Amino acid sequence: MIFSRAIPMIRPYKDILIILGFVLAITLPFSNKAFHIDDSAWLAVAKDILHNPYQPFHGRASLIDEDLQVFEHLKKTPRSFERLSHPPLFPYFLALIIYLTHSVDERSLHIAFLFFVGLAAAAAYLLAKRFTKHPLFASLLFIATPMFMISAHGLMNDIAMLAFFLMAILAYMKGVDERAAAPLVLSGLFLALAILTRYIAFALIPLLLAYALLRQKKLSWPALLPIIISLIIYGLWEVSNVINYGGMHLPASSKFATAFFASTNFTISRIGENLVADLAALGGVTITPVAILWLHITGRRLRMAVIPGLFVLLFCLVKGFQNYWIFVTYTTAQILLLLFFLVAAISIAMDIFTSGIASIAALLSRKCLTERERHIDEIFLSLWFGGMLLAAVIILPFAATRYLLPLLWPMIILWVRHMEKTIEKWTPRFRQFCVGTVAVTVMTSYVLAYADYKYAGVYRRFAASVGERYRTAGHQLWFVGGDWGLRFYMERENCNYLWSRGVMPRAGDVIIWPAEAMLREVPAALLPSIRQIAVEVYQSQNPIRVMNRKANAGLYSNGQGALPYSFSRAPLEEFVILSVKAPSFFLSNLGTATKEIANHEPVTLSLVAINGDARPAISEYPPGKITYQLVVPPNTRLSFAVALDPTMYQPHLGDGVRFEVAITYEGEEKTLFSKYIDPKSRTGDRKWHTEQVDLSAYGGKEILLTLVTLPGPADNADNDWAYWGDLDLLSN
Q1: Contacting residues for 392 by C-beta, under 8 A, at least 6 apart
Q2: Rounded to an integer, what distance in angstroms lies between the CA atom of residue 428 and that of residue 424?
Q3: What is the three-class DSSP state of 535?
Q4: Are 448 and 150 in contact, with CB atoms under 8 Å apart?
Q5: Which fold has domain 584-732?
Q6: Is 642 helix (H, G, I), strand (E, B) or coil?
Q7: Residue 139 burial class via C-beta count within 10 angstroms: exposed 0-12, middle 13-18, buried 19 and up
Q8: Cβ atoms within 10 A of the Cβ of 183, count?
Q9: pLDDT tens digits, residue range 616-667?
Q10: Single pTM value for the model
């Protein structure tokens, strides 16, 4: 008798232990993961905090080259206060761990980070008890998703914010439901912690008020207590900023971010790309998409999968005929994978929204009063999911899987609730379905997490040995545009971040240019003086890519691609090794050359990589002419290479380009070189074509040398982005 009474009390603790054991199982094997993506930014702030605990933004942590341009535009001195768009609560946590361990060690920091992972998992379980009959299954599924699991392996503030976010909702619901003050005070404290971790947590305020209105039909003073407490704490934080920095952090950082993303914020194109990438993440790295679609089919809701699928397919086909971005760079397999993810995401989103709308209609019509609680829950969870999705698509400047963490929990809870309604009556099948869904989801997560682990490790491995291979006495080693983990590990090895202004490399110095972690081009002033001396390629036998431009996979940013992951044999990373040399005449004097370009397309100078072969190059859209006036040195030849933009290697994007070199001497023009290439249709042309022209007959004479580009045989100049690379005069 006593034992039977104890069972209900023991069961929650048993479930919590299972969940925490599950958390350890998915995180400890990856505890030595290299610092990755934004980890290095928070570590930089943490180091500043250790030097000045009372002014967390006193330094210039995490500044990149574009930041200096924005600061110059805003007429402000560069500093972390404006640059960092999140408050510093999480860096304070990292600073504490670094202080206690006396080192910036991957394993110790990741293990300490488990505090937030465990708190988020426990909060998810306690909330699931309120909304489902199978809280353990719902919680394990939540933790098993790739979206949660991979985020749990980093040192970014998303999981920390999510833990406080869920705890604030849990305490608020308890306080409102039981009309108790203590949980509401606790909710206010957790809400404040969430806001001081990421400002996006302000979105929690209308969500909490919506819950109070649904439950009480009006707002009472106790229901406002958590909001008041959190705003007071946030206000104190901003008062300290006014004292220390002369302004409030949220407005200052928002102004900076608006200027930084001025070219993309709130444009239809940007919102559309964010929506595609966010939906692909919901369908690809949450619940396994097979389980999502199988549930719809089993529940005789096949239309929920077919209708969105047809819509997405027709949309992509129509846009494809207009050279829409997806058909320009994506393979057929990648398009099909993206469609599969989109169909799954749209199916579950439509199911969530239709259930929410149906519940609103039922409450307004005062029908089904016996199910009022269920309808309120459906409306609240639908508002939670929809509000966070809308914020991610519209407010955030780019799409990233981790940005969707706040809506992952309501998505899973609603899916589990619908699953309970649909197939729970078939008990054996229900249990099998639960176990199978968690098993397949966690296996997918392990595979993707391992791929991410290997990719992150590339930068640690490269930086550890680059100095002994390329650093020479009297010369320095630089890296350009590389951020993420690369910057942390390169600076740890005393390599220099290359800014577009200020101190520049000298002749003999070496510059590292990464393909994937490249957030900026080589400074234009250096392009005439560099030459590739090597390329280091890091491959993997694992065919899964989570952050790769060639694979169109952008788990952390849709700047790499709309897919959260993809299948590809593309290298994990390619490091182009550049040496600084004497400047090229043609690249140095591009500004004084005469230009006649079709449609006034810009003539630019950039570093162009094709199959790992990077060359400083001049762009010339056909039909075009670029003419130089020069005196030819004796016994000289013109050395150069020609190519087309590698992102345009598709047969339907044009018919190639003809490159010509013409000489005008004493009024007579002569063509010395002519070559037609069509890499769009001929795979053998997909490279740099190295050529040379003997100019020794014109030694000591003043000539006009013209670089000519012409459309292909069909006179079709569509997408003909042509390049002249490595232009130089060499002695015979």
Answers
A1: 274, 278, 399, 403, 404, 407
A2: 9
A3: strand
A4: yes
A5: Jelly Rolls (2.60.120)
A6: strand
A7: buried
A8: 19
A9: 999 999 999 999 999 999 999 999 999 999 888 877 777 889 999 999 998 8
A10: 0.87
